[in-house]
Amino acid sequence: MQSPRNHKQTLVRETLESGLSSFVCPATGGRWIDGETYWAWLRAQGEITPSRNAADSASAGEVVAINDADGALISPRSGRLMRKFRVGRGLRFAIDFDAASGGFWLDAGEYESLRAHNLHDELQLIASEDWQRELRRTESAESAERRLRMALGEVEYAKLMEVREWIGRHEQREVLVAALRWSRVQLPA
To answer: In this structure, what are the phi and psi dihedrals at residue 152, rounded to the nearest 5 degrees?
Structure first.
């Protein structure tokens, strides 16, 4: 198989984990993981360890610098275009997935970053519409919060969060929220 990043390079088989082999590009350090091999390895793992958010896991160490080029890649297995799926969870790169063969292309350093955050056994989830939809929803909510923080300033934003927490803890929170939404309630000018 030829490397999708450097077509002159032949991929070399390498053991990635016990029971999981991959094919590495000697020139770029990227790696191909065959779909069948990955699924067999995943089934043999039994219980999967929950992933960690990169932003919340200082013990995971430094994230390896990633060379995640934007161009479309050709699968070394099927010869078809692969689709990029963003990882998220604090990791700012995308993995390439070949739907025809079920295989994954990971650029140099990506597997190590995924492993450091316990996402190495979630490739099939990352390459799903549900994962990508949740990623977009989360990023949209974070963006809205950043805009609100900028619009209000830190002090006023902190006050708003205190009110939000108070409402959330209140035994009649539904009434409080309804009162705030009621169009006849006049907020002070």
So the answer is: -85, -30
User: Splitting the chain (189 residues) into consecutive groups of 10 residues, what average pLDDT does each group show?
Assistant: 94 94 96 95 78 43 49 93 94 96 96 96 95 94 91 90 91 87 65
Q: What is the DSSP string of 30-52?
A: -EEE-HHHHHHHHHHH-SPPPP-
d(CA 171, CA 167): 8
- For the chain, how many structural domains are there in total? 2
pTM equals 0.74
Query: Closest Cα partner for 120 from 26, 2, 24, 18?
Result: 18
159 lies in the same domain as 102: no
Q: Is 18 exposed, middle or buried (0-12, 13-18, 19+ CB in 10 A)?
A: exposed
